[in-house]
Write a structure and sequence with these properties.
By secondary structure, this protein is mostly helical. The protein contains 8 helices and no strands. It has helices at residues 11-25, 31-46, 50-68, 73-88, 92-109, 118-130, 134-150, 155-167.
Length: 171
């Protein structure tokens, strides 16, 4: 018998197919379309295809703003993703702007220092520290550390914040 040796489809191609199918049958701002855009962007990011990931995340952000306005957790999620991609693309100024906007949206929506503030805080702090702005990074790092302590974080999660504090000369 003839044996065919085929590769299983890559996650990237599965997300592409899912997105294509959803775009055919759903409006562009539908949650399932946005979920597929995010999935494909994440797959491209993991493959090191950062420009593709950036374009997809920008599309998702635009659609989310159109559907949900600027002050929504999903918009902040897209901004955080764009911050991470901009970092990989060597665009620290853009990454910082995305993280700042994501943090501002989340502070507005979750004023009681929720754990959702952590991701944009850490992204922003890494960039501030890299450009020598420890005086701005340290208060954010302390705030993120306090949130993690309050939420019974793991030792690894606490160390992730204590290392940059130490790098800024804080014990």
């Amino acid at each position: 018998p003839l044996m065919l040796h085929t590769q299983p489809p890559s996650p990237d191609s599965l997300y592409e197919r899912s997105l294509a199918l959803r775009r055919k049958r759903l409006p562009p701002t539908h949650a399932e379309v946005l979920q597929s855009i995010d999935g494909l962007a994440g797959a491209r990011y993991r493959l090191g295809r950062y420009e593709d990931a950036e374009n997809l995340h920008k599309e998702a952000l635009s659609l989310r703003r159109q559907q949900l306005g600027n002050d929504h957790p999903e918009v902040a999620f897209s901004l955080e993703n764009l911050g991470a991609v901009a970092e990989k693309l060597g665009k620290p100024g853009e990454a910082e702007a995305y993280y700042r906007e994501a943090l501002a949206v989340k502070r507005k929506l979750f004023p009681t220092q929720g754990p959702s503030l952590i991701r944009p805080m850490i992204g922003l702090c890494k960039l501030l520290q890299a450009r020598g702005a420890c005086s701005e990074a340290v208060p954010l790092l302390r705030e993120a550390l306090a949130i993690r302590v309050k939420r019974s974080a793991t030792p690894e999660q606490l160390a992730d914040l204590q290392k940059p504090l130490a790098a800024c000369g804080v014990k």
